[in-house]
Specification:
It is built from two helices and four strands; from the N terminus they run ααββββ. It has 134 residues and is an alpha+beta fold. The protein is rod-shaped.
């Protein structure tokens, strides 16, 4: 083999190595973003579930217009943990509840506060860990 052929082979190996590194980086970033989106989706489902508890009369097992009414809002066991992460609810006051989702993959946490008096998320979602860098 000539010297030019060896240089072309070395150049080809370097380019393939760089392409593999870039591909792995993109895959990792997509995986983190996908996990964050799944946590947000699960927290949105928890917001809806908590709102159902909030508006349900205490005689029917609800909160009667309060997250602390009746027995108080508790995340159901099947919604508390899944493949995406683990979720914790903290009652702030009668009409506000805060949800924190912790990634099962160790990527970080997603937090939001839901206000049942308006039926909306208060402020923005907040992120920690690798979620904060996306």
């Amino acid at each position: 083999m000539g010297q030019q052929q060896l240089l072309l082979i070395i150049l080809g190996v370097i380019i393939v190595g760089i392409a593999i590194a870039v591909g792995l980086s993109l895959f990792s970033a997509q995986s983190i973003e996908s996990n964050r989106d799944a946590l947000i989706n699960d927290i949105n489902n928890l917001n809806a579930h908590a709102y159902q508890f909030f508006i349900r009369p205490t005689s029917m097992g609800g909160g009667g217009g309060s997250f602390s009414g009746g027995t108080g809002y508790v995340i159901p066991a099947k919604m508390g943990t899944n493949d995406n992460g683990t979720y914790v609810a903290t009652i702030i006051n009668a009409t506000q509840i805060k949800f924190v989702g912790t990634s099962a993959a160790g990527n970080g946490t997603v937090t939001n506060t839901f206000d049942a008096s308006t039926g909306k998320v208060t402020g923005n979602y907040t992120y920690t860990g690798l979620f904060g860098s996306n």
